[in-house]
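Morning!

This is the sequence you dropped in the shared folder:
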Amino acid sequence: MTSRGRFLSLHWSLGLGRWSLDYCPLQGSILDNVLIVGSIAGKRYIEADRLGQSVIGEANMATAGTTWLHRMGTRAIDLLFPPSCVACGVGMGELVDDVAMCTTCRDALPRIAWATCQRCAARVPEIPGCVSDCKHCRDHKIQFDRTFALGAYDGLLRDLVLEMKNDATDRLANAFGELITLQFAETIRQLEPDAIVPIPMHVWRRLSRRANPPVSLAATIGRQLGLPVEPNLLRWRRDTSAQLGLSQQGRFRNMRGVMQIRAGYRLDAPRLLLVDDILTTGATCSEAARVLKRSGAAEVTVVVVGRTSSI
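The structure's back. Tokens below.
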């Protein structure tokens, strides 16, 4: 069927702006017409019946031992080739928490300092002892179950997210992915997610941009949490007009029916993390969650870098 192994690769990482030591999967041939089944800890949750689909599971999961060796090797390389901060460019003698962002810039990232809806992270009235009902979720029938946002989409974080959209090196996406993991790793693990799904980018937009932040963010989070990433699970049925400038209702109408599960996949009640860069009205993530749940997903949790304070 398939044979897999790993080998150590020492290479210059554009994404991190430094030398990197990585474990790369070494995969053998796949027999024709084989049903490929992805699993974690013996739990089957996604099938792909076409050659060329990525295999979910062992090939892109790191064991505790390989993670430890990777970190030790990376730290040794950093001593020889010191990295720089992705935000301000200052040289860093040693990474703090393995994140290529200096503590000054990390402290300058605006945090979410308002009471939030647990489902969509929108601002809600702060009433001591009460859980406020979210009018936004109710009015638009938000389809995902909860949201984790690194910070408020404002100030330095907003500037860096906009830069990340055209960052071909993926340095910013890698740094943000690391910060998201540091902040939410334990909470996310308690949810026992099965896989990570980035919001897809339409092929025409991908050609016009230099980067694909949701995929890069998902890859970093997946590596840190030991979870497989499925960048090909969702696809666009058609391109949409720009969301910028549309009303809330207009954004939800604009996104209706634009995504679908790629042919050849079957979901068997997985719990999924849905990754994007920004959450504003939630129209894009809600539509993606609707499609995933309609296709069999049991639960969808949204993970983003920035959340707007108003919707």
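Headline: Residues 171-191 form the longest helix (21 residues).

More detail when I'm at my desk.
O.
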